[in-house]
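QUALITY CONTROL LOG
STEP: pairwise intake check
CHECKER ROLE: data steward
CRITERIA: each record must contain a sequence immediately followed by its structure tokens, with no blank fields

ENTRY 1 OF 2
RESULT FIELD BELOW
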Amino acid sequence: MFEKLLLAVTITFSLNFFFQVRVPEQHNSSTAYGPQPEQPVTILVTKSKK
């Protein structure tokens, strides 16, 4: 029982750490492309004809 709890805590900590770590930005990459304007996300839904 204790081993399962320890495994669950370890997996949870590892996933949180994995998703919080970000790739360090290179100095030249942000100036080459410039700031990207934020655009709203568009979701296209099609309805099948029956």
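ENTRY 2 OF 2
RESULT FIELD BELOW
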Amino acid sequence: MNKMMMIYLGITLYIFILVILNLFEEEKLFNQLNAALVIIPLILRLLMIK
């Protein structure tokens, strides 16, 4: 892996962690579902599945 890919994956992991934290802190079900929908493409990106 080159340096730019590592930076990209690091940024993606950082956003993934923030969304996970938001998912557990949020009280409204709609916002939790919204965060869950955001998590799916982030997981695919971290696994490098397009």
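INTAKE CHECK: passed for both entries
DESCRIPTIVE NOTE, ENTRY 2: The mean pLDDT is 94.
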